[in-house]
Design goal:
With 269 residues, the chain is of the alpha/beta class. It folds into two domains: 117 residues, Rhodanese-like domain (Oxidized Rhodanese, domain 1); 114 residues, 3-Layer(aba) Sandwich (Oxidized Rhodanese, domain 1). The chain is 26% helix and 11% strand. The strands form two sheets. Strands 1-5-4-2-3 form a five-stranded parallel β-sheet. α9 links the parallel β8 and β9. It is globular and about 50 Å long.
């Protein structure tokens, strides 16, 4: 399998053998699809976070539950992503949104990576034409249980539990989205937005490794990653791989599911 993060030069050298996917999404009401239509990497298709990469939100499942695996396979085929394709996804936020698609594909055994630096790293022309991809076969496979964690496993601390949200949300000082503030007791805050520098490019592998080690991650140890709704948590999972650790597990419901229960919440750092 390819590395979880690739640069522009890597993409250019293989452009005719890749599917580019624009996964811009925002929490402030802006439309990722509108941003895509205003300009995207040449030939890139648009993957909608809410419609393509998640099931309908609910208190029981959280804001972005994993979609039905068969529906996901159909949608990937419609986007022109087939069984043998390599996908490079990007956004304009350091990869924290596009990581969801990359993690989903890699979990199913497909070659997929984030574009380091996102759309801002592309120094060529952008295009506004919306491509009409050829329908492809994407074989449906269930989400692998070994790559997922349940709410009970996250709450019981089955390994090191890391929270990808920004520090103020982790500490419970601010909660603009979910039903109550705080974090899962025993979790460690590894803010995914600090995996990249000011330009949106990933920190060196050794720096990432030190960040995770400070949270208690060890070689061969179990890691469960969560965030607000199971999206940006994927950025930490890809960063773990970039840092040389074994793949961790995603808690898909994340804080949006946990906060809707009567389980205890912790505050502070």
């Amino acid at each position: 399998m390819i590395e979880p993060v690739v640069d522009v030069e890597w993409v250019r050298a293989r452009r005719d053998r890749l599917v580019l996917a624009d996964v811009r999404a925002y929490l402030d009401g802006r439309s990722g699809r509108d941003a895509y239509r205003r300009g995207h990497l040449p030939g890139a298709v648009f993957a909608d976070l809410d419609q393509d990469l998640a099931a309908a939100p609910s208190a029981a499942g959280g804001r972005h539950p994993l979609p039905d695996f068969q529906a996901f396979a159909v949608r990937m085929g419609e986007l022109g992503i087939g069984d043998g394709d390599t996908v490079v996804a990007y956004d304009d936020a350091g990869g924290v949104m596009a990581a969801r698609l990359v993690w989903m594909l890699r979990a199913l055994g497909h070659d997929a990576a984030l574009l380091d630096g996102g759309i801002g790293a592309w120094d060529g022309e952008l295009e506004t034409a919306v491509p009409q991809p050829r329908l492809k076969v994407f074989t449906a496979k269930p989400w692998p249980a070994e790559r997922l964690a349940t709410i009970d496993e996250a709450a019981d601390g089955a390994g090191v539990v890391i929270d990808a949200r920004q520090p103020e949300r982790f500490r419970g000082e601010s909660e603009p989205i979910d039903s109550r503030p705080g974090h899962i007791p025993g979790a460690h805050n590894v803010s995914c937005r600090e995996n990249v520098d000011a330009t949106g490019r990933f920190l060196p592998a050794e720096v990432l490794r030190a960040r995770f080690a400070a949270a208690g991650v060890t070689d061969g140890g179990e890691v469960i990653s969560y965030c607000g709704s199971g999206v940006t948590a994927c950025h930490n999972l890809l960063s773990l791989e970039r840092a040389g650790f074994a793949p961790g597990r995603l808690y898909p419901g994340s804080w949006s599911q946990y906060a809707a229960t009567d389980r205890p919440a912790a505050k502070g750092s």
